[in-house]
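User: Last request for today: this protein with iron/sulfur cluster, please.
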Amino acid sequence: MSKETKGTGLSRRDFVKTMGLAGLAAGAGASQALAAPPAGAKAATIPKRKLGKTGVEVSILNLGGMFDTINNQLLLKQARKWGVTYWDTAESYGNGLSEEGMGRYFSRNPGSREEIFLVTKLVPKKGNLTARLEKSLKRLKTDHVDLFFIHAICGIEEMTPAIREWAAAMKKAGKFKFFGFSTHTDMENCLAGAAKLDWIDAVMMTYNFRLMHKPKMKAAVAACVKAGIGLVAMKTQGGGPVTCDSEAELKMAGRFLEKGFTDKQARLKAVWENPHIASICSQMPNLTILGANVAAARDLTKLSRGDFESLQEYAQETACGYCAGCGRICMTALNGAVPVNEVMRCLMYRQDYGEPELARLTFAGLAPEVRERLATMDFTPAELACPQGLPIAQLMRQATEMLA
Ligand code: SF4
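Assistant: Here's the final one, the structure of the complex with iron/sulfur cluster:
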């Protein structure tokens, strides 16, 4: 064990103390604590992986920008210093404020923009895409982003010929180098559909220890790999709108602590065990979480079969508290009246991430008529259709009470 944690400027004792103890008190949206250093080897900095056919080597941990980047300039600085050189933002994060914070960092730190693989995203339904992209670039203080995602698609049919033409034009104009989409709804079908389109460079999707072993997900990922599509995982902690008490959780946490890392770090490592996942997008709104996740990324210890079994046992015991993103199922059951999994995502931000403001803002982004329906609608058909057995009606009412 070295006396100084390489690249952090902190002694190992201080680093563990700072990240470990503070982490235990932090929110639960990402890895929380850095435990004692594991016996395994450590990379000098965050490893990189190739992002599919783009050929670009990106850091396996990337900074999700859904937090106050304007007032967290030091965090951006530390992320870069620790080798988190892939940053992800979106027009909708803080209504442009996330982009503005990153732009402020680039303008105040000459040479930093060139080091960062920068991604932003737009939802296509709200007005002129080109004009909005220009505004995003202006906020980011750059003339291009490296990768552009159409934000949060629910089905591959949203990748229309018009979007294809637009993407080609923007690439030609130098506004972005690579193009793709993000999705946390019906991910498996979106991925399978992307594999059939030769104009998608990369996809960011919900992917975690709960979903990665499902045959449909495995087949969709394999199809994308074959097509050369770069894959980025998000929502890797597998948190849900409900927190279930689980004996398996205690067992799992104890097992990983003995190995020198937390179960939150183990969840990241489970995703990295798939070499085809180029990077994990993680919300790391404070140095505690950033430090813990960086430590997990640098730790080269492999998870064992027993570790995966432990995660699986936990996944099974808590399945009824996890919304699997199969939004088409409940939406169809309700004739499209309520995007149940979007509301579930708001609850997840509140309950699992411990981010009430983010939850409230995301909830406020739903159409007013949808929010009104939540308190009165009969959700029985959706509950009968839900493969996870979620108490949808109860959760929709709870969302109204907590987030309206
Ligand atoms: S509520 Fe159930 S059916 Fe709807 S997306 Fe979540 S898990 Fe799937």
